[in-house]
Design goal:
The protein contains one helix and 29 strands. By secondary structure, the protein is mainly beta. The chain folds into three domains: about 20-140, Immunoglobulin-like; about 170-295, no CATH class; about 310-430, no CATH class. The strands form nine sheets. Strands 3, 4, 5, 7, 8 and 9 form a six-stranded antiparallel sheet that branches. A hairpin with a 4-residue loop joins strand 18 and strand 19 (about 270-275).
Length: about 425
């Protein structure tokens, strides 16, 4: 009987380990302050190479298999990446057995004459000798202007504007003392205690073909209570019209993404996001209200076509939930795993919408090309567009489901996953060039 229990425990542990599908995640990348100017720029050597040191923290999840990791600091100029550091390697047997945390410093040398670009930490992961994933740090330092992690008392980061003359950035802030989300075209004039949350998108200049004005309304109380943005100018109960900051689009065109409007019935406030979900169970998704220009995210490889994005896989080890998104950022308990492939941001020939659902009481994200009522799984929006049928350049994506832990798992690798039952082939996407 005792042997049976031991075997059972070992089997359960193997299920958990494989289910974790954990990757290796960069949790910190910071250039030492002695190498930075007062406004957080890298202090460049005008007469030669610029030497500096950066600190990092890398965390490895629980896995089965051999995982080796290689770290390098790179300078990204457009789609070109140049290694500017020595190479650090952590082999599978070298990871600390207790916390799987790798901390250290890495020496770098920026070539003479370099004045533009972004500095990242690049992590290359190997399963044995086979390259399985490449990750760039969320934190970066730009040579022509600093960008810093989102957080309290941080300024808005410099973001590359879309290739549209006169495009106007729309920045999101959170007023903790007011419990209110603000959207502004500039950081000036914000309440003293405001946290920069991110870039929602870019507004179009007035008279841009196909665009309409965006109207800004507020509920004025002490403290302020709500902000509302709409393409319909009219009288709204409790709301006062402020201004028209720029134009937006009522239908999606190339270079734009939908803006999702959410309503919090508890605080009676609105919030707007440029990706579906990951907002909290207290928020109710109302609808896509309009479309805005979006700046391109930094990618390791050039995108294979116009109006497509990398599809990222994240995983919550505690709640056992796989999450897919096209927006790479810090999601708290959901840790980055890998790039699954590429999906379209607008509907193209032979593509269909990929709908996102979420069951809060089960902590489970679900993705499907069929929009309907799924009971506890609540509709959150369209993640992007995928191919329903195989194309010459696509790979299939299979669905697996863990009935015990209520976890949907989507992967291009069709094999047996202990604890998961095979559901079937669900859609096709463009492959990522590992």
């Amino acid at each position: 009987m005792k042997n049976i229990k031991i075997i059972t425990l070992l089997f359960l542990f193997s299920i958990i380990a494989i289910k974790a599908n954990a990757g290796v995640d960069i949790t910190k990348f910071i250039i030492d302050s002695q190498y930075l100017t007062n406004n957080l720029k890298l202090r460049l050597n005008p007469s030669g190479e610029t030497s500096f040191t950066a600190k990092f923290t890398v965390v490895k999840g629980i896995e089965i298999g051999i995982t080796n990791a290689v770290l390098e600091v790179i300078l990204q100029e457009g789609s070109t990446q140049t290694v500017i550091s020595n190479q650090l390697t952590r082999y599978s047997g070298d990871w600390p057995s207790q916390n799987n945390v790798w901390e250290g410093a890495i020496d770098c040398k920026l070539p003479a004459g370099k004045k533009t670009g972004d500095i990242y930490l690049r992590l290359t992961r190997y399963e044995g000798s086979v390259k399985s994933a490449v990750t760039l740090s969320v934190t970066k330092t730009s040579l022509d202007g600093p960008t810093v992690p989102v957080g309290p008392n941080r300024p808005a980061p410099a973001t590359p504007a879309p290739d549209i003359a006169g495009a106007i950035p729309f920045l999101e802030y959170y007023g903790d003392n007011y419990n209110l989300y603000y959207l502004r075209t500039a950081p000036q004039g914000m309440p003293p205690i405001s946290v920069f949350r991110g870039l929602l998108g870019y507004g179009a200049p007035e008279n841009t073909p196909g665009s309409v004005p965006l109207y800004w309304y507020s509920e004025y109380k002490n403290p302020p209570a709500d902000e509302y943005y709409t393409i319909n100018k009219q009288e709204y109960e409790r709301l006062t019209y402020n201004s028209t900051p720029f134009n937006v689009f009522t239908t999606q065109i190339t270079g734009t993404k939908p803006i999702y409007c959410h309503w919090n019935p508890i605080t009676k406030t609105h919030r707007y996001m440029n990706a579906p979900g990951m907002i909290g169970s207290e928020w109710v998704f109302e609808d896509v209200k309009f479309y805005m220009y979006q700046n391109k995210q930094i990618t390791t490889h050039p995108l294979p076509e116009v109006d497509c994005e990398e599809l990222y896989e994240y995983y919550n080890y505690g709640k056992i939930d796989h999450y897919l998104t096209t927006k790479k950022m810090d999601y708290g308990d959901w840790k980055y795993v890998k790039v699954l492939g590429y999906i379209s941001t607008i509907q193209k020939p032979n593509t269909v919408p990929l709908y996102q659902y979420y069951a809060n009481n089960k902590t489970d994200h679900y993705y499907t090309t069929t929009k309907k009522d799924y009971g506890e799984w609540i509709y959150e929006g369209i993640l992007g567009y995928v191919y329903a049928e195989s194309q010459p350049t696509t790979v299939p994506i299979y669905e697996f489901y863990d009935y015990s832990n209520f976890d949907h798992y989507f992967t291009p690798v069709n094999r047996n996953y202990p604890g998961y039952g095979a559901v079937g082939l669900r859609f096709h996407i463009l492959p990522y060039p590992y």
